[in-house]
Amino acid sequence: MSHSDAMSPPERAGQSGSGWPRLVGAVTMAAVCLVIASPALDAHGVSTKDARYLLSLDGPAIIPLMYLGAKHMVTGYDHLLFLVGVIFFLYRLKDILLYVSLFTVGHSVTLLAGALGGFHASAHIVDAIIGFSIVYKAFENMGGFKAIGFQPNTRLAVLTFGLFHGFGLATKLQEFTLSRNGLVTNIISFNAGVEIGQFMALTAVLLALGYWRTRSGYLRHAYVTNAALMSAGFVLVGYQLTGYFVVGR
Amino acid sequence: MTEKHQTTGAPNPVAAPSIHTLLKTTAAAMSVAAVLLVTCVLPAEYAIDPTGVGRRLGLTEIASPTLKVAEPLPSDSALAPVVNGPVGLYPAEFKFDVFEVVLAPYEYIEYKYQLEKGATMLYSWHASAAVIHDFHGEHSGAVGEGTPEAETYDKQQRQQASGSLTAPFTGIHGWYWENPGGSPITIRVTSSGYYASSVEIHSDHTRRVHTLRPANALSLAPEPPATAGGQ
Known about the structure:
The complex is a heterodimer. Chain A is mainly alpha-helical. Chain A has one domain (13-246). Helices cover 75% and strands 0% of the residues of chain A. In chain A, helix 4 packs parallel to helix 10 (183-213) and helix 6 (93-117) packs parallel to helix 9. Chain A is globular, with a radius of gyration of 19 Å. By secondary structure, chain B is of the alpha+beta class. Chain B folds into 2 domains: 19-61, no CATH class; 77-217, GOLD domain (Jelly Rolls, Sandwich). In chain B, strand 1 (82-84) and strand 2 form a beta hairpin. Classes of the chains: A mainly alpha, B alpha+beta. At the A-B interface, helix 2, helix 3, helix 7, helix 8 and helix 11 of A face helix 1 of B.
């Protein structure tokens, strides 16, 4: 992509037209979109038919597990929102590959280690941390760390949050008593599916962002967009923390 | 301008906002999230509705749905009893049923029998872990003005129950079971009674009608198996 050189100089974010009503309006709209979309999507839960299928498994099933992994990634809005945050300001293919690889390495490690090693954690807490990763990335994109004069290493952050995302996947899989028969093959297939799904989702996000970047409003609206992203992250955090106290585990 | 990012810095071409703007925006993002959580997400997901907005918007229904049977079940008016003192006489034989289901985390199911008014059944059910449970009946056909369509007999978290039911009205009578989360739960029901049919209704709104076995299908106690441990 060659948009990077054509971009206009950075604007003073948050000063040009960040009047309260406009800001709140945009944030509300984005968050409402998220909520409306959520029943159709299936955040982290494995839908009941898929769950029954997983429980019925006894032996390796490479293609079905790859499909489920890919489906999980493509329909998991929390992963997608985080990815949008990560690549929001990445223009060069080299950077995108670097950051996405860090994320991939992170979640593969914990998915495989968690599901095979049997590490347990509260799915609600892990999902709340995933929600927080969206808040974090949005805050960074808003220039928050520049403003407070403290910038944690971005690569390390993406890697760390990748670890949590993978741990979330592993925890969800472990809610089902999966047959030991073919477990390693199945978990690796699931992970491979997750990568395929991530690649497809990323392509879609990049196409959308790539188009949007050619418009003059991209940088102007970057601040508000990331504020909306942050709000969606807060919704996920609140949703999962409440789940932790209400449903337990 | 060409971007050359420092190794640790955010690849972010947008200049930093003032601390004041940043705080304002973060507070706005949090407030919007809080409002959405309290009015929409929590009512819909957990039936927690402190403001009452969720109920008004119909969102609490999602957390605790009341299912309605679309078409009436096969019924049999011959299964209505003629009461003669302590005896209820039926012109047909009783039937029996064994039903087992595995509920994935957060999944629910309804399982109900079609009973005529006054008809009796005996039941025992057992779950591998405690489930959210509502034993209730629903009228078949239209109900009069002011009469509720459904009536709850027992509603609380249970792991098992045994009892008898004499149907207070003609309709479907049975259980709503929900897995509160965690691991899959197996539920097994055994019953006998003067019912004509049963229906299972799943979380995904699929339903399946069962035709039940007549009592004369029961055989004498089976021969003990010749060798232990065989299939």
